[in-house]
Design goal:
This protein is of the alpha/beta class. Among the domains are: 3-39 and 207-275 and 368-416, FAD/NAD(P)-binding domain, CATH 3.50.50.60; 97-191, no CATH class. Helix content is 29%, strand content 23%. It contains twelve helices and 19 strands. The protein has helices spanning 11-20, 62-69, 74-77, 107-118, 133-158, 179-187, 207-216, 257-260, 338-344, 371-383, 392-395, 401-416; strands at 3-7, 25-29, 41-44, 47-50, 78-82, 85-89, 92-95, 199-203, 221-222, 230-233, 236-239, 242-245, 247-250, 279-289, 296-298, 308-310, 326-333, 353-365, 387-389. It has a seven-stranded mixed β-sheet with strand order 7-6-15-16-17-14-18. Helix 1 (11-20) runs parallel beside helix 12, helix 2 (62-69) crosses helix 12 (401-416) and helix 4 (107-118) packs antiparallel against helix 5 (133-158). The chain is globular and about 70 Å long. 40% of the residues are buried.
């Protein structure tokens, strides 16, 4: 048993706190006033605002499922929902994922897509063998689908040239395309079941904030406690004057780790380049909308800067408690003013009326062709110093809630070995 400091009380930090707390003494330090990190929610006029996207839970990992449901009563505290996602493409609502709903597109466009598939040049390879994300999308879906949907949508959300994004981030995170399966889905029309969140669980009250609050229960968490520097004295760590601790689990932004460790000789062992790792923030505007049954709507069109609408009001009735209408979150990748977003939502369906907004400096990590190696080098260096990386921005991995829990479990195994 040792004393462990966990920096950050998002899902990664909370999961690590609960898991490691079974064997060790743990304390969490978080800069915010309440736990949750990227899954945090506020109520505005008693309507639930997911301030950074709309977070739901499911997993294919039985170990994660068993651990998670140990904290909750699935039948009384959660709703099980089926994902009903659509793509607003050229003025029509098309099913998601698009490749399974080609039969809903205009005949002329479908003809061009099929021409790509039967072309001698259409020779998909192992997904991870492509040089970059753009090449992967173009080669697997053909030029027509790439230019119609995959390029414009992904350029919106990632806000970068897709040829700069390597493929390793995709491994194990999304179902890989297969021409036979795509054609089967369009000939023998059937619901999408392979995606992890084809069905999902959602808390009846307070959404993902309910999850964060429950996982925080029983933990020692110092809120409003941003760690600006770490010192090392006689083999022990002191975090902004608080300690001593034997080990540190860092779930913060890896780009700041050398600055936080500047009072130790560890910072000199960390290679440069971390500060150049790119990420995108998000600007979200919370709205009232017309009633409907859509859960997500993806927006590839150039007529609006937003890339998706998350209809959180369809997830649970309590999310709309302060309104006579449903609620939703319109998400933009990048930093946009409230006034700009208000103008943009006039172009979207649903008679949207704004009731709140949020700007998050960092929401989406972006991989480069050198990021994986750079992060791994830092991980191994810090591990020798009893500092462990965990979470989306510490490990530079695109974790959803279930993957964050899975990573916390892996860290427990690592510390126990």
């Amino acid at each position: 048993m040792c004393k462990i400091a966990i920096i950050g009380a998002g899902i990664s930090g909370l999961s690590a706190g609960q898991i490691l707390g079974k064997k060790h003494t743990v304390e969490l330090f978080d800069k915010a006033s309440k736990p949750g990190g990227l899954v945090k929610c506020d109520r505005i006029n008693d309507n639930l605002f997911h301030k950074v996207g709309g977070h739901v839970f499911n997993s294919r990992n039985q170990k994660v499922l068993d651990w998670f449901w140990n904290f909750f009563d699935r039948d009384t505290e959660f709703i099980k929902a089926r994902r009903n996602a659509k793509i607003l493409l050229q003025g029509k609502l098309i099913g998601y994922p698009l490749e399974n709903y080609l039969h809903q597109l205009d005949k002329g466009l479908v003809s061009k897509i099929l021409d790509d598939f039967i072309s001698p040049d259409y020779k998909p390879k192992d997904p991870l063998s492509y040089a970059n994300f753009a090449e992967f999308l173009r080669s697997n879906f053909g030029e027509t689908l790439y230019e119609t949907y995959f390029r414009p949508y992904n350029e919106k959300i990632w806000n970068t040239d897709l040829s700069n994004i390597p493929l390793h981030w995709l491994d194990g995170k999304l179902p890989m395309p297969n021409l036979k399966e795509m054609l089967m889905s369009n000939i023998v029309v059937q619901e999408e079941t392979e995606m992890v969140h084809a069905t999902f669980y959602y808390a009846k009250e307070d959404g993902s904030q309910f999850i964060a609050n429950r996982l925080a229960k029983g933990l020692t968490i110092h809120q409003n406690a941003e760690i600006s520097h770490i010192e090392k004295r006689e083999g022990k760590y002191w975090l902004s004057g608080q300690g001593p601790f034997d080990k540190i689990v860092y779930t913060g932004d890896i780009r700041k780790i050398d600055q936080i460790l500047s009072a130790t000789d560890i910072s000199r062992k960390i290679s440069g380049g971390l500060k150049d790792l790119p990420s995108n923030g998000t600007s979200n505007i919370f709205c009232e909308t017309d009633f409907g049954d859509i859960s997500w709507m993806y927006l590839p069109g150039e007529e609006v800067k937003a890339h998706r609408i998350i209809y959180t009001g369809t997830f649970a009735e309590s999310n709309n408690r302060g309104s006579k209408r449903q609620t939703c979150v319109v998400e933009f990748s990048g930093n946009y003013t409230y006034e700009f977003m208000c103008d943009q939502i006039k172009k979207l369906p649903g008679n949207l009326v704004p009731i709140g907004f949020n700007q998050e400096p960092n929401s989406y990590i972006l991989h480069t062709h050198v990021s994986k190696g750079a992060i791994e080098e830092v991980r191994q260096t810090l591990k020798k110093e009893n500092i462990f990386l965990l979470g989306r921005f510490a490990e530079w991995e695109y974790y959803n809630m279930d993957k964050a829990i899975e990573a916390a479990m892996a860290l427990d195994d690592e510390l126990s070995s």
